[in-house]
Amino acid sequence: MLDAGFQPVGRDFPVFLDPETHEEVALARTERKTAPGYRGFVVHAAPAVTLEEDLQRRDLTINAIAQDADGRLIDPWGGRADLAARCLRHVSPAFAEDPVRILRLARFAARLPDFTVAPQTLDLMRAMVAAGEVDALVPERVWQELSRGLMETRPSRLLEVLRACGALARLLPEVDRLWGVPQRAEHHPEVDTGVHLGLVLDMAARLQAPLAVRYAALVHDLGKGTTPAGLLPRHHGHEARSVALARALGERLKVPNDCRALAEVVAREHGHIHRSGSLGPAALLRLLERCDALRRPERFEEVLWACECDARGRTGHAEAVYAPRPRLRRVLALAGAVDGAAVAAAAAARGLRGPAIGEALHRARAEAIAAGLGEDTGQDAGGDAGQPGEPAGDRPA
Protein backbone atom coordinates (compact mmCIF):
# COMPACT_ATOMS: atom_id res chain seq x y z
CA MET A 1 0.00 0.00 0.00
CA LEU A 2 2.81 2.40 0.87
CA ASP A 3 4.73 1.57 -2.31
CA ALA A 4 1.56 2.35 -4.31
CA GLY A 5 1.40 5.84 -2.77
CA PHE A 6 -1.39 5.25 -0.26
CA GLN A 7 -1.23 7.45 2.83
CA PRO A 8 -1.48 5.72 6.24
CA VAL A 9 -4.07 7.00 8.71
CA GLY A 10 -2.69 6.79 12.23
CA ARG A 11 0.10 4.53 13.42
CA ASP A 12 -1.61 1.41 14.70
CA PHE A 13 -4.37 0.47 12.26
CA PRO A 14 -3.97 -0.71 8.64
CA VAL A 15 -6.09 2.06 7.19
CA PHE A 16 -4.95 4.06 4.15
CA LEU A 17 -6.16 6.88 1.89
CA ASP A 18 -6.16 6.39 -1.88
CA PRO A 19 -3.68 8.94 -3.33
CA GLU A 20 -6.11 9.99 -6.08
CA THR A 21 -9.64 9.61 -4.72
CA HIS A 22 -8.75 9.94 -0.98
CA GLU A 23 -11.16 7.06 -0.40
CA GLU A 24 -10.45 5.19 2.83
CA VAL A 25 -9.18 1.63 2.42
CA ALA A 26 -8.89 -0.70 5.42
CA LEU A 27 -7.07 -4.02 5.30
CA ALA A 28 -8.59 -7.04 7.00
CA ARG A 29 -7.22 -7.26 10.52
CA THR A 30 -7.53 -8.93 13.88
CA GLU A 31 -6.73 -7.49 17.28
CA ARG A 32 -5.42 -8.90 20.54
CA LYS A 33 -6.25 -7.28 23.88
CA THR A 34 -3.09 -6.48 25.84
CA ALA A 35 -4.11 -3.85 28.41
CA PRO A 36 -7.21 -2.10 29.83
CA GLY A 37 -8.94 0.65 27.90
CA TYR A 38 -9.32 1.32 24.20
CA ARG A 39 -5.61 1.67 23.46
CA GLY A 40 -4.56 -1.73 24.83
CA PHE A 41 -4.47 -3.66 21.55
CA VAL A 42 -1.98 -5.28 19.23
CA VAL A 43 -3.27 -5.19 15.65
CA HIS A 44 -2.45 -7.93 13.14
CA ALA A 45 -2.98 -7.45 9.41
CA ALA A 46 -1.83 -10.05 6.90
CA PRO A 47 -3.06 -11.83 3.76
CA ALA A 48 -4.06 -14.81 5.90
CA VAL A 49 -6.68 -12.78 7.82
CA THR A 50 -10.10 -13.59 6.33
CA LEU A 51 -12.90 -11.12 5.77
CA GLU A 52 -15.10 -13.06 8.18
CA GLU A 53 -12.43 -12.77 10.89
CA ASP A 54 -12.20 -9.05 10.25
CA LEU A 55 -15.97 -8.62 10.47
CA GLN A 56 -16.03 -10.57 13.73
CA ARG A 57 -13.99 -7.78 15.34
CA ARG A 58 -16.56 -5.09 14.44
CA ASP A 59 -18.69 -3.63 17.19
CA LEU A 60 -22.30 -4.15 16.01
CA THR A 61 -23.80 -6.66 13.62
CA ILE A 62 -25.29 -3.89 11.48
CA ASN A 63 -21.72 -2.61 10.98
CA ALA A 64 -20.37 -6.09 10.14
CA ILE A 65 -21.79 -6.45 6.63
CA ALA A 66 -19.50 -6.37 3.60
CA GLN A 67 -20.16 -6.18 -0.12
CA ASP A 68 -18.05 -7.72 -2.86
CA ALA A 69 -17.24 -6.25 -6.25
CA ASP A 70 -20.34 -7.88 -7.75
CA GLY A 71 -22.65 -6.32 -5.18
CA ARG A 72 -23.23 -9.48 -3.16
CA LEU A 73 -23.56 -8.99 0.58
CA ILE A 74 -21.36 -10.92 2.98
CA ASP A 75 -23.16 -11.09 6.31
CA PRO A 76 -21.77 -13.83 8.54
CA TRP A 77 -23.03 -12.33 11.80
CA GLY A 78 -26.70 -11.61 11.10
CA GLY A 79 -26.51 -7.89 10.47
CA ARG A 80 -29.34 -7.83 7.93
CA ALA A 81 -31.68 -9.61 10.33
CA ASP A 82 -30.86 -7.10 13.07
CA LEU A 83 -31.44 -4.23 10.65
CA ALA A 84 -34.87 -5.63 9.87
CA ALA A 85 -35.58 -6.09 13.58
CA ARG A 86 -34.26 -2.61 14.43
CA CYS A 87 -31.80 -4.09 16.92
CA LEU A 88 -28.35 -2.94 18.06
CA ARG A 89 -26.46 -6.12 18.90
CA HIS A 90 -22.76 -6.80 19.50
CA VAL A 91 -21.02 -9.16 17.07
CA SER A 92 -18.90 -11.14 19.51
CA PRO A 93 -17.37 -11.07 23.00
CA ALA A 94 -14.60 -8.94 21.49
CA PHE A 95 -17.00 -6.00 21.97
CA ALA A 96 -16.03 -6.02 25.66
CA GLU A 97 -12.40 -5.27 24.88
CA ASP A 98 -12.98 -1.66 23.80
CA PRO A 99 -14.94 0.69 26.12
CA VAL A 100 -15.34 3.26 23.35
CA ARG A 101 -17.89 0.85 21.88
CA ILE A 102 -20.24 1.65 24.76
CA LEU A 103 -20.20 5.30 23.72
CA ARG A 104 -20.51 4.42 20.05
CA LEU A 105 -23.52 2.20 20.67
CA ALA A 106 -25.19 4.95 22.71
CA ARG A 107 -24.52 7.35 19.84
CA PHE A 108 -26.07 4.92 17.35
CA ALA A 109 -29.13 4.69 19.62
CA ALA A 110 -29.43 8.48 19.47
CA ARG A 111 -29.11 8.42 15.68
CA LEU A 112 -31.53 5.50 15.24
CA PRO A 113 -34.17 6.15 17.90
CA ASP A 114 -36.45 3.33 16.73
CA PHE A 115 -33.70 0.74 17.32
CA THR A 116 -33.52 -1.14 20.63
CA VAL A 117 -30.41 -2.48 22.36
CA ALA A 118 -30.27 -6.28 22.53
CA PRO A 119 -30.60 -7.44 26.17
CA GLN A 120 -27.42 -9.53 25.87
CA THR A 121 -25.52 -6.49 24.62
CA LEU A 122 -26.77 -4.35 27.48
CA ASP A 123 -25.70 -7.04 29.93
CA LEU A 124 -22.24 -7.09 28.37
CA MET A 125 -21.99 -3.30 28.64
CA ARG A 126 -22.93 -3.46 32.32
CA ALA A 127 -20.21 -6.04 32.90
CA MET A 128 -17.69 -3.78 31.15
CA VAL A 129 -18.64 -0.87 33.40
CA ALA A 130 -18.39 -3.07 36.50
CA ALA A 131 -14.93 -4.19 35.38
CA GLY A 132 -13.78 -0.55 35.24
CA GLU A 133 -13.26 -0.44 31.48
CA VAL A 134 -14.91 2.96 31.02
CA ASP A 135 -12.64 4.41 33.72
CA ALA A 136 -9.72 3.97 31.30
CA LEU A 137 -11.23 6.31 28.70
CA VAL A 138 -9.32 9.55 28.24
CA PRO A 139 -11.34 12.80 28.45
CA GLU A 140 -10.73 13.75 24.82
CA ARG A 141 -12.30 10.52 23.55
CA VAL A 142 -15.28 10.85 25.89
CA TRP A 143 -15.89 14.39 24.63
CA GLN A 144 -15.49 13.30 21.01
CA GLU A 145 -18.22 10.69 21.31
CA LEU A 146 -20.41 12.81 23.61
CA SER A 147 -20.33 15.76 21.21
CA ARG A 148 -21.25 13.52 18.30
CA GLY A 149 -24.09 11.98 20.28
CA LEU A 150 -25.47 15.37 21.23
CA MET A 151 -25.75 16.20 17.53
CA GLU A 152 -27.82 13.13 16.68
CA THR A 153 -31.56 12.94 16.02
CA ARG A 154 -32.61 12.15 19.61
CA PRO A 155 -29.76 12.94 22.00
CA SER A 156 -31.82 11.90 25.02
CA ARG A 157 -31.28 8.28 23.98
CA LEU A 158 -27.53 8.72 24.33
CA LEU A 159 -28.06 9.43 28.02
CA GLU A 160 -30.69 6.71 28.39
CA VAL A 161 -28.38 3.99 27.08
CA LEU A 162 -25.37 5.20 29.07
CA ARG A 163 -27.52 5.35 32.18
CA ALA A 164 -29.00 1.89 31.57
CA CYS A 165 -25.56 0.26 31.57
CA GLY A 166 -24.16 2.37 34.41
CA ALA A 167 -21.64 4.26 32.27
CA LEU A 168 -23.30 7.65 32.76
CA ALA A 169 -22.62 7.56 36.51
CA ARG A 170 -18.94 6.89 35.84
CA LEU A 171 -18.41 9.34 32.99
CA LEU A 172 -20.89 12.16 33.79
CA PRO A 173 -21.92 11.75 37.45
CA GLU A 174 -23.15 15.37 37.55
CA VAL A 175 -25.68 14.51 34.82
CA ASP A 176 -26.57 11.06 36.14
CA ARG A 177 -27.66 12.35 39.54
CA LEU A 178 -30.43 14.47 37.98
CA TRP A 179 -32.70 11.43 37.58
CA GLY A 180 -35.07 10.98 40.49
CA VAL A 181 -34.77 14.63 41.57
CA PRO A 182 -38.25 16.22 41.66
CA GLN A 183 -39.24 19.69 40.52
CA ARG A 184 -42.41 21.66 41.16
CA ALA A 185 -45.15 20.09 39.05
CA GLU A 186 -46.89 23.40 38.32
CA HIS A 187 -43.80 24.53 36.38
CA HIS A 188 -42.47 21.12 35.32
CA PRO A 189 -45.30 18.66 34.58
CA GLU A 190 -42.69 15.96 33.90
CA VAL A 191 -41.46 16.52 37.52
CA ASP A 192 -38.27 14.44 37.24
CA THR A 193 -35.24 16.64 36.46
CA GLY A 194 -33.58 13.91 34.41
CA VAL A 195 -36.68 13.47 32.27
CA HIS A 196 -36.75 17.24 31.77
CA LEU A 197 -33.12 17.16 30.62
CA GLY A 198 -33.95 14.58 27.96
CA LEU A 199 -36.84 16.70 26.70
CA VAL A 200 -34.59 19.78 26.55
CA LEU A 201 -31.92 17.96 24.54
CA ASP A 202 -34.49 16.56 22.12
CA MET A 203 -35.97 20.03 21.70
CA ALA A 204 -32.47 21.32 20.86
CA ALA A 205 -32.26 18.65 18.16
CA ARG A 206 -35.72 19.54 16.88
CA LEU A 207 -34.70 23.22 16.65
CA GLN A 208 -31.46 22.18 14.88
CA ALA A 209 -29.31 23.90 17.48
CA PRO A 210 -25.51 23.87 17.10
CA LEU A 211 -23.24 21.90 19.42
CA ALA A 212 -22.54 24.76 21.84
CA VAL A 213 -26.27 25.23 22.44
CA ARG A 214 -26.82 21.50 22.93
CA TYR A 215 -23.95 21.29 25.41
CA ALA A 216 -25.38 24.27 27.31
CA ALA A 217 -28.72 22.45 27.40
CA LEU A 218 -26.97 19.37 28.81
CA VAL A 219 -25.43 21.20 31.77
CA HIS A 220 -27.86 24.05 32.44
CA ASP A 221 -29.53 22.42 35.48
CA LEU A 222 -26.67 20.42 37.00
CA GLY A 223 -27.09 22.26 40.30
CA LYS A 224 -30.50 20.69 40.84
CA GLY A 225 -28.75 17.38 41.42
CA THR A 226 -27.12 18.82 44.55
CA THR A 227 -30.19 20.45 46.11
CA PRO A 228 -30.53 19.25 49.73
CA ALA A 229 -33.40 16.78 50.10
CA GLY A 230 -35.10 18.99 52.68
CA LEU A 231 -35.50 21.83 50.16
CA LEU A 232 -37.05 19.76 47.36
CA PRO A 233 -38.95 20.23 45.11
CA ARG A 234 -37.71 23.83 45.12
CA HIS A 235 -34.17 24.47 43.98
CA HIS A 236 -33.04 27.72 45.59
CA GLY A 237 -29.61 28.78 44.39
CA HIS A 238 -29.24 26.00 41.85
CA GLU A 239 -27.99 28.43 39.19
CA ALA A 240 -24.72 29.15 41.01
CA ARG A 241 -24.21 25.46 41.72
CA SER A 242 -24.89 24.67 38.05
CA VAL A 243 -22.21 27.13 36.95
CA ALA A 244 -19.62 25.57 39.27
CA LEU A 245 -20.46 22.03 38.19
CA ALA A 246 -20.52 22.96 34.49
CA ARG A 247 -17.11 24.62 34.85
CA ALA A 248 -15.63 21.55 36.52
CA LEU A 249 -17.13 19.21 33.93
CA GLY A 250 -15.83 21.36 31.07
CA GLU A 251 -12.33 21.29 32.49
CA ARG A 252 -12.41 17.54 33.13
CA LEU A 253 -13.55 16.65 29.60
CA LYS A 254 -11.47 19.39 27.95
CA VAL A 255 -14.62 20.80 26.33
CA PRO A 256 -13.91 23.53 23.72
CA ASN A 257 -13.89 27.06 25.12
CA ASP A 258 -16.89 28.27 23.10
CA CYS A 259 -19.05 25.48 24.51
CA ARG A 260 -17.83 26.10 28.06
CA ALA A 261 -18.41 29.85 27.94
CA LEU A 262 -21.92 29.57 26.54
CA ALA A 263 -22.82 26.84 29.04
CA GLU A 264 -21.81 28.98 32.02
CA VAL A 265 -23.86 31.96 30.83
CA VAL A 266 -26.93 29.78 30.24
CA ALA A 267 -26.56 28.01 33.59
CA ARG A 268 -26.35 31.34 35.41
CA GLU A 269 -28.92 33.37 33.52
CA HIS A 270 -31.59 31.05 32.05
CA GLY A 271 -34.00 31.70 34.91
CA HIS A 272 -33.64 35.47 34.61
CA ILE A 273 -34.19 35.23 30.86
CA HIS A 274 -37.32 33.12 31.36
CA ARG A 275 -38.90 35.82 33.53
CA SER A 276 -37.44 38.81 31.69
CA GLY A 277 -40.95 39.88 30.69
CA SER A 278 -41.44 41.13 34.26
CA LEU A 279 -38.20 43.16 34.32
CA GLY A 280 -37.97 46.89 33.82
CA PRO A 281 -35.49 48.69 31.53
CA ALA A 282 -32.62 48.96 34.03
CA ALA A 283 -32.86 45.29 35.03
CA LEU A 284 -33.09 44.25 31.39
CA LEU A 285 -29.94 46.19 30.62
CA ARG A 286 -28.10 44.59 33.54
CA LEU A 287 -29.15 41.20 32.18
CA LEU A 288 -27.72 42.07 28.76
CA GLU A 289 -24.49 43.28 30.36
CA ARG A 290 -24.04 40.09 32.41
CA CYS A 291 -24.53 38.07 29.22
CA ASP A 292 -22.03 40.35 27.39
CA ALA A 293 -24.77 40.67 24.78
CA LEU A 294 -23.79 44.14 23.56
CA ARG A 295 -20.29 43.01 22.75
CA ARG A 296 -21.17 39.48 21.61
CA PRO A 297 -24.69 39.56 20.13
CA GLU A 298 -24.13 36.33 18.18
CA ARG A 299 -23.43 34.43 21.38
CA PHE A 300 -26.43 36.02 23.07
CA GLU A 301 -28.55 34.61 20.25
CA GLU A 302 -27.25 31.17 21.20
CA VAL A 303 -28.05 31.87 24.86
CA LEU A 304 -31.66 32.62 23.87
CA TRP A 305 -31.70 29.49 21.72
CA ALA A 306 -30.69 27.33 24.70
CA CYS A 307 -33.26 29.04 26.93
CA GLU A 308 -36.02 28.35 24.43
CA CYS A 309 -35.03 24.67 24.42
CA ASP A 310 -35.25 24.68 28.23
CA ALA A 311 -38.67 26.33 28.31
CA ARG A 312 -40.17 24.15 25.58
CA GLY A 313 -38.50 21.00 26.85
CA ARG A 314 -41.32 20.34 29.29
CA THR A 315 -44.31 18.05 29.06
CA GLY A 316 -47.12 19.87 27.25
CA HIS A 317 -44.98 22.89 26.27
CA ALA A 318 -43.26 21.65 23.11
CA GLU A 319 -45.41 23.84 20.83
CA ALA A 320 -45.38 26.92 23.06
CA VAL A 321 -44.16 30.27 21.76
CA TYR A 322 -41.10 31.43 23.70
CA ALA A 323 -41.85 35.13 24.18
CA PRO A 324 -38.55 36.19 25.83
CA ARG A 325 -36.54 35.45 22.70
CA PRO A 326 -38.03 38.08 20.34
CA ARG A 327 -38.49 40.57 23.18
CA LEU A 328 -34.85 40.38 24.30
CA ARG A 329 -33.69 40.62 20.70
CA ARG A 330 -35.60 43.89 20.51
CA VAL A 331 -34.18 45.08 23.83
CA LEU A 332 -30.67 44.37 22.61
CA ALA A 333 -31.31 46.24 19.37
CA LEU A 334 -32.58 49.26 21.31
CA ALA A 335 -29.55 49.31 23.60
CA GLY A 336 -27.15 48.72 20.73
CA ALA A 337 -28.58 51.64 18.75
CA VAL A 338 -27.32 54.14 21.32
CA ASP A 339 -24.28 56.04 20.01
CA GLY A 340 -21.78 55.31 22.76
CA ALA A 341 -19.16 57.70 21.43
CA ALA A 342 -21.64 60.58 21.33
CA VAL A 343 -22.87 59.86 24.85
CA ALA A 344 -19.30 59.68 26.15
CA ALA A 345 -18.39 62.94 24.44
CA ALA A 346 -21.43 64.70 25.89
CA ALA A 347 -20.67 63.35 29.35
CA ALA A 348 -17.06 64.49 29.11
CA ALA A 349 -18.23 67.94 28.03
CA ARG A 350 -20.22 68.08 31.27
CA GLY A 351 -17.04 67.38 33.21
CA LEU A 352 -17.69 63.68 33.88
CA ARG A 353 -14.73 61.33 34.05
CA GLY A 354 -14.01 57.60 34.32
CA PRO A 355 -16.81 55.50 35.82
CA ALA A 356 -19.20 58.44 35.62
CA ILE A 357 -19.04 58.28 31.82
CA GLY A 358 -19.88 54.59 31.95
CA GLU A 359 -22.86 55.35 34.19
CA ALA A 360 -24.07 57.97 31.72
CA LEU A 361 -23.90 55.45 28.90
CA HIS A 362 -25.77 52.91 31.03
CA ARG A 363 -28.55 55.48 31.69
CA ALA A 364 -28.77 56.37 28.01
CA ARG A 365 -29.19 52.73 27.07
CA ALA A 366 -31.78 52.15 29.78
CA GLU A 367 -33.71 55.21 28.57
CA ALA A 368 -33.53 53.94 24.98
CA ILE A 369 -34.92 50.58 26.10
CA ALA A 370 -37.68 52.28 28.07
CA ALA A 371 -38.63 54.52 25.17
CA GLY A 372 -38.66 51.62 22.75
CA LEU A 373 -40.77 49.47 25.04
CA GLY A 374 -42.97 52.33 26.17
CA GLU A 375 -42.03 51.87 29.83
CA ASP A 376 -41.27 54.27 32.65
CA THR A 377 -37.59 54.30 33.64
CA GLY A 378 -38.60 55.27 37.14
CA GLN A 379 -40.08 51.81 37.72
CA ASP A 380 -37.65 48.90 37.59
CA ALA A 381 -40.46 46.36 37.34
CA GLY A 382 -39.66 42.89 38.51
CA GLY A 383 -36.81 43.91 40.79
CA ASP A 384 -33.13 43.38 40.17
CA ALA A 385 -32.53 40.55 37.70
CA GLY A 386 -29.35 39.79 39.56
CA GLN A 387 -31.06 39.27 42.92
CA PRO A 388 -34.34 37.38 42.40
CA GLY A 389 -36.44 36.55 45.39
CA GLU A 390 -37.13 33.03 44.09
CA PRO A 391 -34.86 31.05 41.77
CA ALA A 392 -36.20 32.04 38.39
CA GLY A 393 -34.90 28.86 36.77
CA ASP A 394 -37.64 27.00 38.64
CA ARG A 395 -40.27 29.11 36.86
CA PRO A 396 -39.78 29.06 33.07
CA ALA A 397 -41.95 31.41 31.07
Automatic annotation (TrEMBL):
Molecular function as annotated in GO: ATP binding; CCA tRNA nucleotidyltransferase activity; metal ion binding; RNA binding
Region (Disordered): 372-397
EC id: 2.7.7.72
Superkingdom of source: Bacteria
Any one GO BP annotation for this protein: RNA repair
SUPFAM superfamilies: Nucleotidyltransferase (SSF81301), Poly A polymerase C-terminal region-like (SSF81891)
UniProt xrefs under InterPro entries: CCA_bact (IPR012006), HD_domain (IPR006674), NT_sf (IPR043519), PolA_pol_head_dom (IPR002646), PolyA_RNA-bd (IPR032828), tRNA_CCA-adding_enzyme (IPR050124)
Keywords: ATP-binding, Magnesium, Metal-binding, Nickel, Nucleotide-binding, Nucleotidyltransferase, RNA repair, RNA-binding, Transferase, tRNA processing
Residue ranges of domain HD in the record: 193-294
Cofactor(s) needed by this chain: Mg(2+)
One Pfam family it belongs to: HD
Phosphoprotein found in the keyword field: no
PANTHER family: MULTIFUNCTIONAL CCA PROTEIN (PTHR47545)
The family this protein is said to belong to: Belongs to the tRNA nucleotidyltransferase/poly(A) polymerase family.
Protein's name according to its UniProt entry: tRNA nucleotidyltransferase
Species assigned in the record: Piscinibacter sakaiensis
